[in-house]
Amino acid sequence: MVFSRRNYQLLLLGVALVVLGFAIMAIEHELDGFWSRNVAPIVIVVGYLEVIWAILWRPRASKTTQ
């Protein structure tokens, strides 16, 4: 596999945050609402950063070589 199990978990968390952010934005239906204007974009950006982190994260190599 290209990614480890941890990468897929982090990726799923990031996608869930992005979907949650867009859902928050869609639920309020107001242009000047607090949730759709302030909270939702922050949640979406955090979700995208989590997706990037999930792609770049690599487990540390074990130090068993002697």
UniProtKB/TrEMBL annotation:
Protein name in the entry: DUF3098 domain-containing protein
InterPro entries: DUF3098
Entry-linked Pfam families: DUF3098
Keyword Membrane: yes
Swiss-Prot/TrEMBL keywords: Membrane, Transmembrane, Transmembrane helix
Transmembrane segments: 7-27, 39-57
